Structures are given as structure tokens and as C-alpha cells.
Amino acid sequence: MLPRIGFKVMVPESIFERSWENFASADILQPVNGKPNGTVEMPYQNYDDWTLLVGNVNISHIFNDRRRLSMDLDRIRFTQYQPADYNQRFFEPGYVFVNEIDLISRKNTPIDTWVGKLDYVLTREKFSLEAGAKASVSELRNDILVESVEDGIITVDSEFSSHAEMTERIGAVYTSVNINASQKIALKMGLRYEHTLTDINTLEEGNVIDRNFGNFFPSIFFQNTINPSNSYVFSYSRRITRPSFFQIAPFVLFVDPNSFTSGNVNLLPSMTDALKAEYRYRSVLFSLQYSHDKNSISIFQPKVSDGGKVINTAENMDFRKNYSANISVPFNITDWWSWQVNISANRIRVKADFLSEPVDITISNFSLNGSQKFTLPHQFTAEISGIYQSKQLFGIMEMRAFGGLDFGLEKKIQDSRLRLSFTDMFDSNKIYISASIPEENLNTRGVLDFETRIVRITYSSSFGNRKMKLNRRNTTGSEEEQRRFQ
Questions:
Q1: For the whole model, what pTM was predicted?
Q2: Is pLDDT above 60 for 474?
């Protein structure tokens, strides 16, 4: 076979733009020694506009049926503009008006990322080798301005206003080997080395972050297929989870005059070591897992500032340990009714030291999810699925048990499908979180009520040459980086 060189240039590879406007109002009681001491009304308007542009250039060279080389160059351009206006009206007991303060917040965050990737693949009958290198450079600028307006006088709030710039450089080399030792035994081993340079500077404090570190990430996967009905798997891996750019970039969203949410420039990447043993008997799957997360990242973690304000930010836990047992069981009740049940039991320990005193919490919980599928006459299919999650940890906070139920109905019409879906039918999929730490003078509760109760009608149809669609390359060199914009 003669060598071939292929080119793929797609600029842009994808474009994403999202904007929304939010109007809300908060009524806050201000108690002193447990007794009402006034009220604050705070209507506010928040606008958020995101634009994400991804461009990709790919060059591939096929030496022969067993060797190929590919190169990717990606450019990501992201911008976020987020203005918010708050009107705070203060009342004494008896609803006597005292004062009015307007807060004006403006946030602008452009981010530029370049990613280069080189991959080489060598394939043999019972052996394959993959090796490559990757480099990325990200530059972030974050401008936030908060002003207060009282009696017509505009004052810049220096506590929340800031200008920060971040430059992050990541280089990696990696290799993996797949060995099919026999028809029953398969082995995969990999090793990756990453080196990271991070600089964060603020106009107010100069260089606040200067990191220079490298890490090895090994992985191993062993599978033994004893017979068609029995097999087992052992695996170990170490991976890194970097904080999203939104978790790093400073911002401020006020919940009330004394409580707000912000970013955290001090966030570290999380390192996870995971062990897994899995056994399959026919279609029943049972597994045991253990993971240790160093610097595990949890969002919306509360702490009390020196000024007595509650700050909610993403924080690094010292560590998070998780022991879990899982079982997945399918049932074929009739030829038209099938059932899938998944059960997971967990024992979790979290230790955090971002407060003045370390917090060490252990909890046991379980989750249950399942689905029932029905094959109906006239090419109709229906599905009911549900989930239940018992009380669990949300960083140092507790998350109350929750659950939800979904329904779907689909009609197949030749090469087309018409589908009706109803998610969270009983509007029960809400997240209640709380933390009570008397030593920190911290007692907080919150509800994350996302829009989960949605009815959709979807129509899909197949067009064109299916073989051409299967041959399309739908990946680029920057999937990992794009996830940090979510």
C-alpha cells in the first residue's frame, strides 16, 4: 500500500454562543441574637453571554496498514461578559425604610487557548503501540468592577473589584501498549508525563501564583475472559482533573449583602488514584472500587470572612476517599418487557483544611437507578427510568437525599424516529445542601433548583451515505481543554 497524506482544515470546527437574562428577588431577614432586626429586599438583574469558537487543523500520514501518524493544531477563543445590577433596600423592624444602595457589577473574561498534538500508532496482530506528545498554552484575562451607588455617589468597591491575568503552559508525552496475549487474556499498559507552568498576576497584588510541577500518570488494565459466561477485570489508573476556568477566574455574585459567590485563583488540580476489580457473569456485573482524590475540588464551599461575610467558592479538599460496591442486573421479564437495575453502595471520607480548623467527615450512602423498556405494537417503544440517591457529601456540606423519574415514548417510521420525552416528571430532582460548623460560626443552607422538568418532542431522520458518516473524524486535539469551559 502506498503512503498517503491526508489534510483536514476546519475553521471553525465549532461555534457555540449562549446568552440568558435572569430576574430575581431576595428577601433577607437580619436577626441579632436570634431576634429579627430588620429586612433587606434585593431585586437583581443578571445577564450572561458566552461565546466559544474552536478551530482545528489536522494532518495525517498513513505509512501502511500498520503505521500512521497524525497531527492536530487547535485554537479556542472564549469570551464571557456578565453584568449584574442589584438594588438593596434596608428596612428596620416594622418595615420602616432606612436606606437604599445599588450595586453594579461588570465582569469580562476573554480566554485564548492553543493546543498542538502529535500521535503515532503501530499495529501488529497481537500487539499495538500508541505514542504521542501534546502541548497547550492558555491565556486568561479577568476584569471585574463592582461599584456601589448611595445617594447618587458612585464608589468603587475595592473588596470585589479586581484585574487578573493567567498564563498556563502544559506539556505532555505519553505511550500505551495493548497486548492480546491469547483469546482470553488482554493487557493494556500506559504511562503519561505532564509538566505544568502556571502564573497568575493581579493588578492589586502582583504575582499571586507561580507554579512549576510535573507528574507521572501510570495505568494498567488486565482482562481475563474465562469463558463466554464468565470474565474478570483488574485496573489501576492515576489521572488529573484541572479546575475549570470559571472556578479559577475571580467573580462575584451576591446572594444577599453579607453572602456572595466567587472564584478561587488558588485552586490546585486534583490527583486521583483509582483501583477497580470487576466480575461479569453472563449479563450480571459486580465491581469493587477504591479511589483516593488528593486536592479534590468541590464547588460552593462556604467560609466566613474576617468581616463576617459568607463566601461560597470552589475549594480543594485535603483528600477524598471513596470505597464502593456496585452491581448491575438486567431482567427480561417477557419478550416485550425488559428491566435494568443498578445499585451502588459507598463509604466516603472527606478531610478539608481550608477553614481555620480541619474538618474530617465520613458518611455511608447508596444509590439506585433503573429503567424499564417496553416494545409495543406498531413500532412504538416506551421507557421509564428513575434514580434515587441517599444523603451524601458535597465537599464539607451534606446533600439531602433526592430522586427523579423520567418517561420516554418513541415511534419508528422507516428511517426516521419521533420521540416524546418527559424528564423529572414530579419535579423532585432538587439539591438541598447544608453545613453546620459552630467552631466557624457557620450555619448555612441552600437549594439548587435547576430546570429539570422538561418536555421534549424530537424528530430525527437519516440522510446521505452512512459509510461516509462512519468515516468522518469527529474528534480534535482539544477535547480535554474544551471541557474546562463547561
A1: 0.86
A2: no
